[in-house]
Amino acid sequence: MELLCPAGSMPALKAAIEHGADAVYIGLKDDTNARHFAGLNFDEARLKDAARYAHQHGKKLHVAINTFAHPDNYQRWQQAVDVAANAGADVLILADIAVLAYAAERFPKLERHLSVQASATNAAAINFYRQFDISRVVLPRVLSMQQVRALARSCDIDLEVFAFGSLCIMAEGRCYLSSYMTGQSPNTAGACSPAAFVNWQDNDGTLESRLNGILIDRFAPNETAGYPTLCKGRFTVGDDTYHALEEPTSLNTLDLLPQLYAEGISSLKIEGRQRSPAYVAQITKVWRAAIDAVKSAPDHFNVQPKWQQVLAGLAEGSQTTLGAYHRKWK
Amino acid sequence: MQFSLGPVLYFWPKAQILQFYREVADSDVDIVYLGETVCSKRRELKYADYFALGQMLREAGKQVCLSSMTLYEAPNELRELRKYVDNGDFLVEANDVGAISMLQEQCLPFVAGAAINCYNQHTLRRLISMGMTRWVMPVELSGQWLSDVLSQSLITDIRDCFTTEVFSFGHLPLAWSGRCFTARSENRSKDQCELCCINYPQGREVKSQDGTQVFVLNGIQTQSGYRYNLINQLPAMQNLADIVRLSPQQTGTFDWLAKFKANLDGNAPQQLNATDSNGYWLQLAGMACG
Which of A148, A176, A243, A251 to mutate to test the interface with B (most CBs of B within 10 A)? Predict the structure, then answer.
């Protein structure tokens, strides 16, 4: 079982590898990946450095090219594949059918993983993507543990699941809420609820967060104000004002680790390429220890309180959830 | 230009659905999509009921297409999908690539629905080679984007192999989740939902704390708060969209169909109301009105 950690910069990549990541995933400095944020990601030269560093330490480098190519500059997505392949990436994480096909034809020996953005939630969908000779599927965060188990037992392909980090509650790659409000979505622009559209206003102690002018939440002076990701705001339905879609919370699957291990899940992915090197270091350390513990004694695995403490401290709103893995969440 | 009625996205009682399709049979719509696309727990109509409705509508002169679900998570849902694929008669709209996989295996033609991620000419051409005969563009794309895809040489030489369709009226389906938001709005879990969607034939409105209609909850599906309405864009759509899709609403669907038909050439534009939007088509935020 691999520990796959995020990096938005060289210091984060080094932190991940120093603290026990088996592999690191990164993106290029443009909208070919789903974390297209200012000041983040790797240009061609840094990508080569990243690959060299990972390989010197015996680790793997995955490159996410997982937005959907635009019609008028399709070449940019092809070039992203070329650049990543030539820089020495071990794996490409892809979502667009056209980009998958291009990579499979141009670099058949370079491993291809199906990005979560391709939204393959069932055996038939996984079967569809096999025509592009993928070796692994990253499962969307909408499935229950029971459903993950069924896929693990019925599909003869490596599965990767999200273990920790920001929780997308919609089937990834098929959520257009962000473009509905801002014109930019993960699929088209590589960003959800982009920072450029965020506005904060203090009204006599009540802090309001808006996204492109739309009120996402209001915080009383004693509340912690979170980033206005549009699916995590407080809205009114009927007579109730509440987190109509989801609370600001992070996914944390430590409790499920023995089950995921027993089902032969190939890789645990930590979300958060936009996070700091210090965050990556702390998360990686906890998950390294947890994976080592489950591997050495799968039947006697106990989640250590100190792990949970560290993770809760790093979680959005200091809350964590098992998300869709746990049926009751649904 | 033809007009279609998309699948009913809400959970209506059987009698209401049957009444709706009797009116569809009497209407002058060209194409009708039938089926439950949102939640496998909604079983007011079963596959056989939809099939029978399809036959009735075909006899009434409609082109009929069976729409499959968007989010498949469980093996029993795939078995239900298999029935649609094996129907032996009607064209199937795939809203998940899992459906395309099954249709492709049997060399059957299909419609690629709006939730299939086709954003460029290369993907479109591949879908055509897999058997796609009609492309419903993703709802978040603009008229310009559609034009950019269709004008590529990769597409112009096979433009007669497929038709294009644009979601043009109704609350836009924007997201699908493992969670049921309608059940959540009633403090229930999905497992204990008691099929409460049936109490909300237009979904449940979600407002921001200062009163803007932001979303509509429709079970596991989240829709646009505003009603998408491209009636005044019809003249500009002439060379791009072969089919204009209207999504069935609880009331007024056929009146709007008539209004759309009347404004095909721009002769009968309509004043949009404050909760209509057309932003996506105009390359703006989806909820904007240009």
Answer: A176
pLDDT, one tens digit per residue, over B175-205 is 999 999 999 999 999 999 999 999 999 999 9
Q: Is B190 inside any structural domain?
A: no
| A142 contacts chain B (CB < 8 A) | yes
Residue B193 belongs to some domain of the structure: no
CATH of the domain at B128: 3.20.20.70
- Integer angstrom CA distances of residue A102 from A286, B74, B108: 38, 31, 25
Burial class (CB in 10 A: 0-12, 13-18, 19+), B177: buried
The half-sphere exposure of A220 on its side-chain side, counting CA atoms within 13 A, is 2
In eight-state DSSP terms, residue A28 is: B
Paired strand residues for B246:
B5, B169
**Do B166 and B132 contact (CB within 8 A), yes or no?**
no
Domain hosting B148: range is 2-173+227-274
Q: Is A122 on the interface with B (CB under 8 A)?
A: yes
Residue A116 CA to residue B255 CA, distance in Å, equals 41
Nearest CA to B277 among B147, B146, B140?
B140
Predicted TM-score of the model (pTM): 0.97
Residues of A in contact with B190 (CB under 8 A): 327, 330
CB atoms inside a 10 Å sphere around CB B14: 12
Number of domains forming the structure of chain B: 1
State the smallest CA–CA distance between residue A181 and chain B in angstroms.
5
Q: How confident is the model at residue B253 (pLDDT cuts 50, 70, 90)?
A: very high
**Is B183 inside a domain boundary?**
no
ipTM confidence score: 0.97
The answer to whether residue B219 sits within a structural domain is no
CB A320 within 8 A of CB A253: no
Tokens, residue A126:
């996984």
What would the mean pLDDT of A137-162 be, rounded to a whole number? 95
d(CA B224, CA B215): 5
**By the CB < 8 Å criterion, does A324 face chain B?**
yes
Chain A nearest C-alpha distance from B62 (Å) = 30
* B105-148 pLDDT tens trace: 999 999 999 999 999 999 999 999 999 999 999 999 999 999 99
Give the pLDDT of residue A318.
73
* DSSP calls for A236-301: EETTEEE-SS--S-EEE-GGGHHHHHHTT--EEEEP-TTS-HHHHHHHHHHHHHHHHHHHH-GGG-
CB-CB neighbors (< 8 A) of B119 in chain A: 68-71, 96, 187-188
